[in-house]
Amino acid sequence: MAKKKSSNEERLQKLTPSGKKDESFFEQVFDVVRQVPKGRVTTYGAVAAALGTKLSARMVGWAMNAAHKMSPKVPAQRVVNRAGLLTGKMHFAYPEQMQELLEKEGVKVVHDKVVEFDKLFWDPAVEMGS
DNA sequence: ACGCTGACTATTA
DNA sequence: CTAATAGCCAGCG
After folding, report:
1. Å from A16 (CA) to B1 (C1')?
2. Nearest partner of A34 among A65, A81, A76, judged by Cα
3. Confidence (pTM)
4. CB A87 within 7 Å, strand B
5. Which residues neighbour A126 within 8 Å (Cβ) at sequence distance 6 or greater?
6. A62, A67, A118, A124: which one has the fewest Cβ atoms less than 10 Å from its Cβ?
7. The nucleotide closest to A56 (CA, C1' atoms)
8. Tens digit of each residue's pLDDT (9 = 90 or more) over A19-75
9. Domains, chain A, ranges and CATH?
10. CB atoms within 10 A of CB A82
């Protein structure tokens, strides 16, 4: 058996079948999040699953930390947790900024939760599969 | 270099 | 029903 240390490298290799350059885990997350249509939302798990790291939804959120310093900025407000809760709102410039941005895009948020989140949920894997 | 933390999720008690 | 635990992986002290 190969060493466990190469497991993460293998995973990344599978994500780049085109022999593309080694995009950092972050760039993959940013790319997916930026594909989220306006007025829609997605979850950490969905993005992680689209990258093949569904077991590490935390890494998606962690990537978001660096996302807002990227350019163009990543619509992290469209990324919520599995329950549709704006768990990451506290990491924005202002905690209410996340809800504010979502409402401006047509997403209603009540008590830090996305209204009809189930309908607004956008699966990145669907777009990547088309 | 080792250990803790963390914008998650699912499972078990 | 709620609470706690485990699994994930990379950055930071």
Report:
1. 31
2. A76
3. 0.83
4. yes
5. none
6. A118
7. C8
8. 344 567 888 899 999 999 999 999 999 999 998 888 889 999 999 998 988 889 999
9. 24-120 (1.10.10.10)
10. 13
